[in-house]
Every structure is written in C-alpha cells, then in structure tokens.
Design brief:
This protein has seven helices and eleven strands. It is of the alpha+beta class. The protein folds into two domains: 38 residues, no CATH class; 186 residues, 5'-nucleotidase,  domain 2 (Alpha-Beta Complex). Strand 7 and strand 8 form a beta hairpin.
C-alpha cells in the first residue's frame, strides 16, 4: 500500500508540473520503487562526515558547557508564586528598562519555563533547557482596563509570573487589590509592559494583551536576555537568587 501511495503521489506531482510547463513537454513514463531505511545503512560510515560532525559538536559542547553563574538555591516554576518566574520577570524588567526606558512591569507564563534551575553551577545549556522557545521580547502599551482584565484572568484561572513592581491580592478568585509601582491600578492610565511575542498574541489565555495601543517589536530572544543577565550577576559577584515575596497574596 505504501508503494502504491508513493507512486500515486509522484504521478500527481508530475502531472501538475507538466501542466505548468510548455506544451512540447510531456510525461512519457513513470517508474518508482521503495528503499527501506534499515540498519544496513549504519554500516556505511563516512569518515569525512563523522569528522565534520565532531568538529561542530566539540565547538557546541564548549559553548553549552560554559559555566556562567551560580544559583544559591533551586528555582522551580511550581506553586502559587514561582521562584523561577520571579527571577525571570525581574530580569526582563531590568533589561527592558535599560532598553526602552520606563517599563511598569513584566509578564511571563510558567508554561514557557521548561525546566528547573538547579542549585549550584549554572551553564549556558541550563538556560537553553529552561528557555527553550525562540520567544522575543516585546513592549506593549496597555490601558488600565486591559491590565485589570489581565490580572482578573490570573485570579480566576491560573496565576502566571509577573515582576516585583506589581502587588496582587486575590480573594475568592477575584482581585481584592492591585498596585503597580506602589500605586493602585488606574484604569484610565496607560501602562508599559514587557513580555514575549507569543503572549502578546493572546496565547495561554492572555487575550487582554491583544488590546495593546502600541506594540514595539525586538529581535531579542528571552533566552539571550537571561544568559546576559546571569553573566552580569556573576560579574557583580552575585548569585542567582529568588524567593517568594509580597508580589502576590491569596486570601482564603
């Protein structure tokens, strides 16, 4: 059956090609056969290819195994307040402020953090494992009404990561209080938010972000931001550190 399907597909392709070509060309005959990819091909070693692969593998291993920092504790992405999300969003906010000026807060989804950051030496590979996706930083201008909707979604469905410039108090799956930069949320104000392009598109339930009145793109990948941030901490003789703080409180 696989052989028949392959031949039929080839016939259709050749028909379409011949239909687009000049009329003096025509398909005269079609022949096909299957080649099973099995272990016999593994015995046909190519020293040249093996050497080429090893060359690039050695270069890649050298880069990925480079120790760039140290974590004083294990950072996980679980719980009401994720230590890993806290660390990530605070780094995002600092980086974005240096890039774009005043930024009110940062937002990330816990689903975008793909691994735990273990205590001890931290390598480039560790950060590749955590920040797997090619998500890029974006800056959004968002009205206070949309910001409120964003955090209402956190209160009702699931809490995601946000920077320490925000303090959110939840009671009975509703916002009891929300302050940004030490001030109560102003629904008539416009806030500047750094996040990633994936979330800015409204994914993972963050549809409120699609209401941005202004969208600033960048080609800066979040993973690169975090690598640079960890190197900066190391240069300042600091370790990676994050603990639950007062940015979120859930009342029973």
């Amino acid at each position: 059956m696989k052989k028949v399907n392959s031949i039929v597909s080839l016939l259709i392709l050749l028909f379409l090609l011949s239909a687009c070509a000049k009329k003096q060309y025509a398909v005269k005959s079609v022949n096909g056969y299957l080649v099973e990819m099995n272990s016999r091909f593994d015995n046909q070693d190519s020293p040249e290819m093996a050497n080429l692969v090893q060359k690039y593998k050695s270069q890649l291993d050298s880069k990925m195994n480079q120790v760039i920092g140290e974590a004083d504790q294990t950072l996980k992405k679980v719980g009401v307040q994720s230590a890993l999300a806290n660390f990530t969003t605070d780094a995002m906010l600092e980086y974005a402020t240096g890039l774009w000026g005043t930024v009110d807060f940062a937002v990330i989804n816990n689903g975008g953090l793909r691994a735990t950051l273990n205590q001890g030496a931290v390598t480039v590979e560790d950060l590749y494992e955590i920040y797997t996706f090619e998500n890029r930083l974006v800056l959004l201008d968002l009205r206070g009404t949309a910001v409120k909707q964003l955090f209402e979604g956190f209160a009702k469905r699931k809490i995601e990561g946000f920077s320490k410039s925000v303090r959110l108090v939840i009671k009975n799956k509703a916002i009891e209080s929300l302050t940004i930069g030490g001030k109560p949320l102003d629904e008539n104000a416009t806030y500047r938010i750094v996040t990633v392009d994936y979330l800015a598109e409204g994914n993972d339930g963050m549809t409120a972000l699609t209401q941005a009145t202004h969208y600033t793109e960048s080609d800066i990948i979040l993973r690169d931001v975090m690598i640079e941030y960890v190197k900066k901490l190391t240069a300042e003789n600091k370790k990676i550190h994050a603990i639950p703080d007062d940015r979120i409180e859930v009342k029973e």
